[in-house]
Fold:
Amino acid sequence: MTTKTETTATPTKTITRLNWSTLKHLAVSAKLLKWRVEHPEAETPSMVLGSAIHCAILEPEEFPKRWIVATQCVGTVKSTGAQCGSQGSIFAGDKWYCRVKGHAPEGAGPVPDGVHVIALDQLEIVKACAAGIAEHKAASRILKGGLAEHAIEWTDPELAIACRGRLDYLKTNQVIDLKSTIEETVRGFERAVAQRLYYGQLAWYHDGAIAAGRLQSDAKLPALVSVQTCEPYDVAVYRLSKTAYEAGQILYRDLLRKYRDCAAADFWPGIAPAERELELPMWAPGMNGSDYGGEW
Structure:
């Protein structure tokens, strides 16, 4: 009788345990997954904002320790005696300084490890989002009594692939994910959930928490709390339907099998490794016997 071993073949950089942020790239191509493992994405302003919103809502006591706003240099201009008006770029104590000689005290430098810089306008958005969650009965209730930013590890029972995840919020009977969004309608947010594969992510976290022994197999299906990052900073709580959850399972399991096969062969193809026929959508001018109808 043979014994399964965990799958360890990976792209150039070693993946000790596979997470959703890596696996989801396979929905585009294996080449993209390999590229992102070897070339991590640079943090964008929207990513910074999303991280800050998560911290302010899920770990409010940690927010002032981890996030600070860069202000103008507090150094003095020798010729005028006035405060410097330049944007601060180095940090000392709780004050910002520019790099002009003599403005910053000895020892000033970048912010300490683990501290992130946020713009003042972003901070206002973060505060509005946190207030929106606090005022929403269902959202404030569901985000209580659990563990925030909880890391789990497990081995997929079918494919023996070592996996990991960081759950936004874990309660004794459910997994909850927090999403910041610009969508204004339920239908718009549903489209975002489909396009960004959030339903696969939620199914992955739910099943992973069960495999890791952190949830019972009969736990509630995962929930998702959304908060707008624009006025009026509206909030909604959604729970995956059984159909949506099962679709998420199909999605992530298909991606896991593709990952297994790519890793075993060390072959990471792009979106079209062979020649393929190109089809047009039915609405394209000339399709379905329709006239172009353009003006001459």
